[in-house]
Every structure is written in C-alpha cells, then in structure tokens.
Amino acid sequence: MTAGLLTYLALILVAWCALVPILWSVSASLKTDGQLTDIAPLPSRPQWSNYREAFDSIPLGRMLLNTVLYAACVTAGQVFFCSLAGYAFARLRFPGREFLFIGYLATLMVPLTVTVIPQFLLMRAFGWIDTPWSMIVPGLFGNAFGTYLMRQFFRTLPRELEEAAIIDGCTPWQTYWRVLLPHIKPAVMVLAVLTWITVWNDFLWPLIMIQRDEYATATLGLIRLQGQYTTNWPLLMAAATVILLPLLLIYAVAQRAFIRGIALYGLGGR
User: Fold this and answer.
1) Whole-angstrom Cα distance, residue 81 to residue 154?
2) Which CATH architecture has domain 59-264?
3) How many CA within 13 A on the CB side of residue 142?
4) Looking at residue 130, what is its pLDDT?
5) Distance (Å, whole) CA 36 – CA 38
6) Which residues of 197-229 are buried (b: 16+ CB within 10 A; e: fewer)?
7) Is the N or the C terminus of the chain less surrounded, counting Cβ atoms within 10 Å?
C-alpha cells in the first residue's frame, strides 16, 4: 500500500512538473504585462484580446497552415519509407542485410547539428532555400529511428502470415502492403505521432532555411513576436498557446492507438 502510494505521488509530481509550464503559458496569455508576476492563475479581467493581437501582429494563421503542410508531408513520407525499409530489414533476406542495418542504425549517434551544414549546402545547390521543398524533402525519406521501430514491429508478426501470402501468390510488395502492414497499425500511429510532433516543434532547420513569412513555420512566428529590446510576453504566450493546441488535439485523438502501440509491443518487440 505504501509503495503504491509513493508511486502515485511520484507520478503526480512528474505530471505536475510537465503541466506547470503549459498552465503558466495559458495564464500569462490572459494577463497584461503588469500582471505577469501575480500569483493568481487567472486575472479578474482576462485579456482575450491578446489572441486577436497575436494573429494581427504576424500571419500566424498562414504559419500554422504551413506547419500543417510540412508536418503532414514529412509524416506521410516517414511512415511509408520507414515501414518499407523496416519490412525489408525484418522479412527479406539479402547479402549484407545485418551489416547494412547496423551501419544505418549507427547514424543515430550522429548529432543533428553535424548534418546541418551538408544539408544546407545541398538545399543551396538545388535552389530550394526559402522554399517549401527545403522543409519537406530532407525529412521525407525516413530515418534510422523510424526504420528501427518498424523493423521491430514487423518482427513481432508470425511468419505464417507471410508464408500464407506467398502460397496465395502475393509478391513481396503485396505481402508488405496488403498482409503485414495492416497488422501494425499501432506502430504506424506511434511513428506518425512522434514524427508530427518533431516536425511541428522543429526550430533550428526552419530558422536556417526560411526567411519569408510566406513559408515560415509556427515556431518562427514566436521569434517574430520577440523584440530586440522588449518583448510583449502575454502576446507571445498567446501565440505559444495557439501553437500548442493542435498537438493536444492530435494526441487526444490518437492517444489510444499510441499508448496501445507502446504498451503491447514497445521498441523491442514482443
């Protein structure tokens, strides 16, 4: 009983630490500059106009649409190519498969900042700087983590499914697309949610690639609201709250499949 109580107290403490910044942002977005230091979570007269001013100060709506477009394209590409590569590494036999997979997996140890300059040079060579292509193409074709995740999920499926498909005359592509892929929907949801969150919160790459507000992401919008000497923090918190809402909505819709994918299989398979 005592151990269970301590566990719940620890979980409540962790949840509280995660929620406090979000609650403070929402609270600050409804205050004026002079009320930011007030202890009261909500002011007596909430400043709902901060949200309207955030949209008036920068093209926040366009930035949100841009971010949705980038996140949707990259997520679709990641799910498709990572699942395809994961299927190949898990189910197909070809020379050097394990060596190639280990080498691909080793790229996880390469910091993101190391690849920024080579990717920037490639984007400049293609003439894609300050275009939507620079935000979509680099992350479209999968990564080592997503491939590893899909491979582990494919390995949990019984071999009999694949053998039955081969007996029925399915090609490797038909086996992947029609037989095995529908059985790993929780894995697809896990990868999709993680990819969407990563693209949505990305700041460094858009900062390097995008200069015009026409193609800017929502995270760049927060920088636009910061002045050189002073910052309107209630306005900034209002924009941050608006940017956070789509993530909460996506997780609320996908949480059952996401949690099921993590709980039933995990990263190591059954």
Assistant:
1) 14
2) Orthogonal Bundle (1.10)
3) 19
4) 95
5) 6
6) ebbbebeebbeebbeeeebbbbbbbbebbeeee
7) N
Q: What pLDDT, in 10s, does the model give residues 78-119?
A: 999 999 999 999 999 899 999 999 999 999 998 888 899 999
In this structure, are residues 149 and 187 in contact, taking their beta carbons and an 8 Å threshold? Answer: yes
Domain boundaries, the chain: 59-264
Place of tokens 């039933």: 264
CB neighbours of residue 12 within 10 Å? 10
pLDDT surpassing 50 at residue 28: yes
140-173: pLDDT as tens digits: 998 999 999 999 889 988 889 888 998 989 999 9
Tokens 């151990």 belong to: 3
- Tokens representing 185 are 């929907």
